[in-house]
Input
Amino acid sequence: SGELYCSLPNPRNVRFESVNMKNVLRWSAPEGTGDGVLYKVKYSVYGVGKWIRKPECRNINRTWCDLSSETSDHEEQYYASVKAFLDGMCSDWVETTRFNPLTDTKIDPPMVSVSSTDKSISIILAPPEKWKRSPEEESISLLQVYPGLQYNVAVLNKKTKKRWFFSISNNTLVVPWLEPGTAYCVSAQIHVTTPLLDSGFSKEHCIATLKEK
Amino acid sequence: DALLPAPQNISILSTNMKHFLTWSPVIVQGATVRYSVEFQGEYEREYANESWIPISECSLSTATQCDITDDISASVAYKLRVRAQAGAASSQWGSLEGFFNRVTTALTPPVLKVTADGCHLLVELQDMGPALQFRVLFWRKGHESRVRQAVLSSGSAGAHLATMEDGAEYCVRAQTHARAIDRSSGFSPTQCVRAQGDTSVRLV
Amino acid sequence: TAGNRIFHFGACKVSMSTAEIRAGFTAIKANIQSRDPIRTLSILSHPHSLHKVKSPDRCCITHHLFNFYVDKVFKHCTTEDSFVNRKISSIANSFLSVRRKLGQCHEQNNCVCGEESMEKYKQILANYEGLNVTSAAMKSLGELDILLDWME
Output
């Protein structure tokens, strides 16, 4: 293909960064190169014989390329590769390690909604959705991808500063017999046992129980 | 040239899925004696020409014990051996008598602290590592036929067990469960608490 | 790590844990896969994915694959890295435990080998024998997560 003379330093730290299976290829510019470096990207399905170019990431000057669509089948594994160009020179192709969307993605914390009565709080949790091509596309919950998905829920009594922990498999939790007129803060984490994956804890959602009637 | 005597009294200390190989020191006047440990699993005996695998953390170490927990990570029979070295001299291998299988590990009941925060029954369990879980039984005193159970992972602080009926007394006991070998310890002593509005009273 | 759980391979139900195999593999995955330069071939997942194996055949193919790894793969995976060798030993010995449990299904005749699973297993062996033994063994070891993802 009439490749140019490839003596440009290579792109560095070429890797997939994946959150909820939104799989983005990222890299750092070659050492010592200022502006003006362009890149092109290709990817391959592991075990399948060909590299596929990503047209939307041809001659780009940014250092990332969204390959979510190309790597959306989480029963496959993938490689991706980047090449840099500057002033008629090019670098070698630099590959990622083998990417397994199922085990190599990070999971966002669950969505938390809280309501209260005078003596109880009700917590409803929702796992993040798997990345999808467009809003119109059918949503796939990560619960469908990871059937063993569970939640760890922390409930902080702001008055006593005591924190209680709950481990639940379904997505609702009612904590009864609370103190009226007291603020409680709730945060939750997703815990998947196989493969072993944990999200971080969500930010705290605080709510006060109603004052006693 | 085995000038050194082989290490003696080689034995295993295995508690709560943590396994240690220990032996008596080899004494050589005026010399520092170091030891190296190797292990052989059933796979190595049956399929890999009875090969031995060194444990790097316990190679040329002066300690007379070696933490083999990470290497004994299957429920099969393992052989273990240790030899002494001082300068250029080294001893014959001293071998553990027989085999070691982690299914024989000693499991001890967990140390737990039961409290009531208002009407809420809480339990705190010591951290005994990821290989262990705790099976916690709890019931309302006088309702022994209706025992409930929770399985908690190690190091649960402030785990919420139940919401108690006001004024009722609840009792808790727990056992350690080693998932990989599917075995449990005996139960810890029972602890009871009673919830009274804001103040909690611990009754043993 | 996860504990024992019930795996369903068609009619075969086995209580076992793959967590330690998974943990051992995760610890050496990057090292092992970096030793496999061949991107265009897979032992387990192409041309036909394990995910296409029908439920009744799952036990047979699983049992054959555990035998495949014990008999053919692990022994050719010795490396110069002591840590990697120890993890491979851990995985290999765990495989013996799991294989013993799968064997129970064989004895209870819950592990029938249909035509499809034998076809799939032959394909895997053909993929394996298409490479020199060290490359084939290292590639197979690097694909352990494909087997585990499918099993789990």
